[in-house]
Amino acid sequence: MPFRRRTKPSFSQRVREAFAPRKGFKRILGYYRLKVMRIGGSPHAVAAGLAIGVVSAWTPFLGLHILFAIPFAYLVGGSMVAAAIGTAFANPITCPIIWPLSWELGQVMLGNKVEGSHHIDLGALFSHLDLSQLWRPILEPMLIGSLPPGLVCGAIFYAITYLAVRSFRNRRIERLTARAGALKSVTTA
Fold this sequence. Notes:
Blueprint: H1 11-19, H2 25-37, H3 43-57, H4 65-76, H5 80-86, H6 95-110, H7 122-128, H8 131-188
Helix pairs in contact: 3-4, 3-5, 3-8, 4-5, 6-8
Protein backbone atom coordinates (compact mmCIF):
# COMPACT_ATOMS: atom_id res chain seq x y z
CA MET A 1 0.00 0.00 0.00
CA PRO A 2 1.57 3.31 -1.02
CA PHE A 3 -0.12 5.44 1.66
CA ARG A 4 0.24 3.12 4.63
CA ARG A 5 2.31 4.26 7.60
CA ARG A 6 5.59 2.55 8.32
CA THR A 7 4.74 2.16 11.99
CA LYS A 8 1.17 1.44 12.97
CA PRO A 9 -0.18 4.04 15.44
CA SER A 10 -1.19 2.83 18.86
CA PHE A 11 -4.78 2.94 20.06
CA SER A 12 -4.12 6.05 22.18
CA GLN A 13 -2.56 7.83 19.18
CA ARG A 14 -5.59 7.01 17.00
CA VAL A 15 -7.98 8.31 19.67
CA ARG A 16 -5.94 11.49 20.11
CA GLU A 17 -5.88 12.14 16.37
CA ALA A 18 -9.64 11.60 16.14
CA PHE A 19 -10.23 14.45 18.60
CA ALA A 20 -7.18 16.62 17.83
CA PRO A 21 -5.77 15.96 14.35
CA ARG A 22 -2.03 16.37 14.03
CA LYS A 23 -2.37 18.75 11.09
CA GLY A 24 -5.27 20.57 12.72
CA PHE A 25 -8.91 21.19 11.99
CA LYS A 26 -7.99 23.91 9.50
CA ARG A 27 -6.88 21.27 7.03
CA ILE A 28 -10.11 19.28 7.45
CA LEU A 29 -12.19 22.42 6.95
CA GLY A 30 -10.09 23.20 3.88
CA TYR A 31 -10.99 19.81 2.39
CA TYR A 32 -14.70 20.46 2.99
CA ARG A 33 -14.35 23.90 1.41
CA LEU A 34 -12.74 22.43 -1.71
CA LYS A 35 -15.37 19.71 -1.91
CA VAL A 36 -18.11 22.33 -1.90
CA MET A 37 -16.32 24.58 -4.40
CA ARG A 38 -15.87 21.72 -6.88
CA ILE A 39 -19.47 20.51 -6.82
CA GLY A 40 -21.05 20.76 -10.25
CA GLY A 41 -23.94 23.12 -10.84
CA SER A 42 -24.55 26.83 -10.62
CA PRO A 43 -23.41 28.82 -7.58
CA HIS A 44 -27.09 29.16 -6.62
CA ALA A 45 -27.62 25.38 -6.73
CA VAL A 46 -24.54 24.70 -4.58
CA ALA A 47 -25.40 27.45 -2.09
CA ALA A 48 -29.07 26.43 -1.88
CA GLY A 49 -28.16 22.79 -1.31
CA LEU A 50 -25.66 23.63 1.41
CA ALA A 51 -28.11 26.00 3.10
CA ILE A 52 -30.86 23.37 3.09
CA GLY A 53 -28.44 20.87 4.63
CA VAL A 54 -27.60 23.32 7.40
CA VAL A 55 -31.28 24.04 8.09
CA SER A 56 -31.92 20.30 8.20
CA ALA A 57 -29.05 19.86 10.65
CA TRP A 58 -30.87 22.07 13.18
CA THR A 59 -33.83 19.65 13.40
CA PRO A 60 -33.85 17.21 16.34
CA PHE A 61 -34.12 14.11 14.14
CA LEU A 62 -30.53 12.95 14.41
CA GLY A 63 -29.64 10.45 11.71
CA LEU A 64 -32.44 11.58 9.41
CA HIS A 65 -30.99 14.94 8.38
CA ILE A 66 -29.87 13.70 4.96
CA LEU A 67 -33.28 12.14 4.34
CA PHE A 68 -34.87 15.56 4.93
CA ALA A 69 -32.25 17.63 3.09
CA ILE A 70 -32.03 15.75 -0.22
CA PRO A 71 -35.74 15.96 -1.20
CA PHE A 72 -35.93 19.64 -0.22
CA ALA A 73 -32.77 20.39 -2.20
CA TYR A 74 -34.32 18.65 -5.20
CA LEU A 75 -37.53 20.69 -4.84
CA VAL A 76 -35.75 24.05 -4.81
CA GLY A 77 -33.25 23.12 -7.50
CA GLY A 78 -30.31 22.87 -5.14
CA SER A 79 -27.41 20.48 -5.26
CA MET A 80 -28.24 17.26 -3.44
CA VAL A 81 -24.53 16.59 -2.84
CA ALA A 82 -24.14 20.00 -1.22
CA ALA A 83 -27.23 19.32 0.90
CA ALA A 84 -25.67 16.10 2.16
CA ILE A 85 -22.44 17.93 3.00
CA GLY A 86 -24.42 20.69 4.74
CA THR A 87 -25.91 18.20 7.17
CA ALA A 88 -22.43 17.80 8.65
CA PHE A 89 -23.20 21.06 10.49
CA ALA A 90 -24.79 18.82 13.13
CA ASN A 91 -21.74 17.19 14.65
CA PRO A 92 -20.49 16.37 18.16
CA ILE A 93 -19.15 19.91 18.53
CA THR A 94 -22.29 21.80 17.48
CA CYS A 95 -25.06 19.50 18.78
CA PRO A 96 -24.49 20.41 22.46
CA ILE A 97 -25.18 24.00 21.41
CA ILE A 98 -27.99 23.32 18.91
CA TRP A 99 -30.16 21.07 21.08
CA PRO A 100 -30.51 23.15 24.26
CA LEU A 101 -30.84 26.34 22.23
CA SER A 102 -33.59 24.93 20.04
CA TRP A 103 -35.41 23.37 23.01
CA GLU A 104 -35.35 26.60 25.05
CA LEU A 105 -36.42 28.69 22.05
CA GLY A 106 -39.19 26.20 21.28
CA GLN A 107 -40.47 26.36 24.85
CA VAL A 108 -40.62 30.16 24.60
CA MET A 109 -42.30 30.07 21.17
CA LEU A 110 -44.91 27.56 22.37
CA GLY A 111 -45.60 29.64 25.48
CA ASN A 112 -44.58 26.90 27.90
CA LYS A 113 -43.32 28.11 31.24
CA VAL A 114 -39.80 26.84 31.81
CA GLU A 115 -39.09 26.38 35.50
CA GLY A 116 -35.67 25.54 36.84
CA SER A 117 -37.06 22.71 38.99
CA HIS A 118 -38.90 21.01 36.09
CA HIS A 119 -36.86 18.04 34.94
CA ILE A 120 -37.65 15.51 32.24
CA ASP A 121 -36.69 11.91 32.93
CA LEU A 122 -35.20 11.00 29.55
CA GLY A 123 -34.28 7.50 30.68
CA ALA A 124 -37.90 6.67 31.47
CA LEU A 125 -39.14 8.22 28.22
CA PHE A 126 -36.63 6.36 26.07
CA SER A 127 -37.11 3.05 27.88
CA HIS A 128 -40.66 2.81 26.52
CA LEU A 129 -39.75 4.29 23.09
CA ASP A 130 -43.22 5.74 22.76
CA LEU A 131 -43.05 8.59 20.25
CA SER A 132 -46.24 10.16 21.55
CA GLN A 133 -44.69 10.59 25.00
CA LEU A 134 -41.48 12.02 23.50
CA TRP A 135 -43.27 14.38 21.14
CA ARG A 136 -44.85 16.87 23.54
CA PRO A 137 -42.05 17.44 26.09
CA ILE A 138 -38.99 17.14 23.82
CA LEU A 139 -39.43 16.83 20.06
CA GLU A 140 -42.15 19.44 19.50
CA PRO A 141 -40.30 22.30 21.26
CA MET A 142 -37.03 21.31 19.60
CA LEU A 143 -38.60 21.19 16.13
CA ILE A 144 -40.41 24.52 16.53
CA GLY A 145 -37.35 26.11 18.16
CA SER A 146 -34.97 24.86 15.49
CA LEU A 147 -36.67 26.75 12.67
CA PRO A 148 -35.64 30.39 13.41
CA PRO A 149 -31.92 29.75 14.08
CA GLY A 150 -31.85 27.15 11.29
CA LEU A 151 -33.26 29.63 8.78
CA VAL A 152 -30.83 32.34 9.93
CA CYS A 153 -27.86 29.95 9.65
CA GLY A 154 -29.14 28.74 6.28
CA ALA A 155 -29.36 32.31 4.96
CA ILE A 156 -25.84 33.08 6.19
CA PHE A 157 -24.44 29.89 4.67
CA TYR A 158 -26.29 30.57 1.41
CA ALA A 159 -24.80 34.06 1.06
CA ILE A 160 -21.26 33.02 1.97
CA THR A 161 -21.33 29.91 -0.23
CA TYR A 162 -22.85 31.70 -3.22
CA LEU A 163 -20.19 34.43 -3.15
CA ALA A 164 -17.36 31.96 -2.51
CA VAL A 165 -18.35 29.55 -5.30
CA ARG A 166 -18.88 32.38 -7.77
CA SER A 167 -15.49 33.97 -7.03
CA PHE A 168 -13.74 30.56 -7.01
CA ARG A 169 -15.11 29.73 -10.44
CA ASN A 170 -14.33 33.20 -11.85
CA ARG A 171 -10.72 32.93 -10.65
CA ARG A 172 -10.49 29.44 -12.14
CA ILE A 173 -11.78 30.65 -15.51
CA GLU A 174 -9.27 33.53 -15.46
CA ARG A 175 -6.40 31.11 -14.71
CA LEU A 176 -7.46 28.74 -17.47
CA THR A 177 -7.86 31.62 -19.94
CA ALA A 178 -4.41 32.98 -19.06
CA ARG A 179 -2.89 29.51 -19.41
CA ALA A 180 -4.59 28.98 -22.78
CA GLY A 181 -3.39 32.40 -23.97
CA ALA A 182 0.17 31.63 -22.90
CA LEU A 183 0.03 28.23 -24.57
CA LYS A 184 -1.36 29.77 -27.77
CA SER A 185 1.41 32.41 -27.89
CA VAL A 186 4.08 29.70 -27.41
CA THR A 187 2.69 27.56 -30.24
CA THR A 188 2.41 30.50 -32.69
CA ALA A 189 5.91 31.78 -31.97
